[in-house]
Amino acid sequence: MMRYVFFDIECACVFKNVAKICAFGYVVTDGQFNVLAREDILLNPRGKFHLTDRKGGEGIVLPYEYEDFKKYPLFPAEYRRIKSLLEDENAIVLGHATLNDVNYLNLETKRYKLPSFRFDWHDTQFFWMNTDKQYGRQIGLGAMAEALGVEFTPHRAVDDAYATMRVCEALCKREGESVEGLVAKYRIRPGRIERYQIRQPFSAGLKSYLDEREEQREAHARAHEEFYRYVNKYMHRRKKGGALEGKVFCFAKDVEDDVAVSVKLVQAIFASGGRYTSHPAECNVYIARDEGGVRYENAVAGGAAFVSLDRVGEALGTDV
After folding, report:
1. Integer Cα distance of 248 and 276 in angstroms
2. Do the beta carbons of residue 280 and residue 304 sit within 8 Å?
3. What is the β-pairing status of strands 285-288 and 248-251?
């Protein structure tokens, strides 16, 4: 009978090449999400607790007594049990932002010179990305749980594993699919760890997203090249002593990329004696569709006047 194994890991500290695991929580269910087993395996991390959030900022607080961890076994003592759980041929392994936890396991096996883990895994965060087509945004377990009506206590490994299970159950119910059905529907390839090498999950939807983003990047590069080719060719030919003599313009990126508009604008600017710069801090007139953004802030901080795009065409006598 196929089972689902949901797991979560908490660490005493995480650095680039170190992850000292202090808790391995897991929940095992049948294919209908009925809980068969759940446990928090607590481990002596053999090191001090140095806890930070995902961005390395203010420390998170784990709902454990840190002094108690000294009496628990080291990771190698529980390694075979954890390995057996995750490498069960009759189990589908799942987590949330699972890549992080798989990497922690990888680092601990290297730290203690233990054989590599070898199993496939799925990620409820990646499931959400595919079902909602939100590949550019990583949703946290708390936000996903709230969206699906699931409650949990954060940072207790077994509770996070249980919440991940409930989130997965709710997502499957919303989609009208089992885990296997969800994987097939969105053509999801699981992540994998083997021989200390980690492969991330992938899907048809992610491929389409990446292809589209690459096309947009290439289109941006072509537009950028075309616009600046025009600027570099004609700025030195601009009319001297025109109405815009002494004025230096800069456009927002999206205006530059709209070549049909940007070339027409800069043509009118040059015809009146103005100049163009790619550096917003050096301009005295900044043109954009709306206020805001880094370029806008740099231009205004440098003393530039902001002119909205919908007003500038009329002022320059051109239709944009």
Report:
1. 5
2. yes
3. parallel
Distance, CA of 178 to CA of 224 (rounded, Å) = 47
Give the residue carrying structure tokens 């203010």: 58
Q: Which residue in this structure is represented by tokens 């043509």?
A: 267
Query: What are the distances in angstroms from CA 247 to CA 129, 201, 238, 272, 277?
Result: 47, 52, 12, 10, 10
pTM of the model: 0.82
Contacts of 196 (CB under 8 A, 6+ apart): 106, 109, 110, 116
State how far the Cα of 7 lies from the Cα of 26, in Å rounded to an integer. Answer: 4
Q: Is 249 helix (H, G, I), strand (E, B) or coil?
A: strand
Q: Which domains does the chain have, with CATH numbers?
A: 3-200 (3.30.420.10), 235-316 (3.40.50.10190)
In our burial notation (b when 16+ CB lie closer than 10 A, e otherwise), range 104-134 reads bbbbbbebeeeeebebbbbbbbbbbbbbeee
**9's tokens:** 């890991």
d(CA 94, CA 169): 12
Give φ, ψ of 235 to 5 degrees: -65, -40
Displacement of CA 184 from its chain's centroid (Å): 23
Residue that the structure tokens 């902001």 belong to: 306
pLDDT tens for the chain, residues 1 to 320: 789 999 999 999 898 899 999 999 999 999 999 999 999 999 999 988 887 655 544 566 787 888 889 999 999 999 999 999 999 999 999 999 999 999 999 999 999 999 999 999 999 999 999 999 999 988 999 999 999 988 776 778 999 999 999 999 999 999 999 999 999 999 999 999 999 999 999 999 999 999 999 999 999 999 999 999 999 999 999 988 899 999 999 999 999 999 999 999 999 999 999 999 999 999 999 999 999 999 999 999 999 999 999 888 666 665 55
* Full strand arrangement of the beta sheet holding 197-199: 35-42, 18-29, 3-15, 91-95, 119-123, 191-194, 197-199
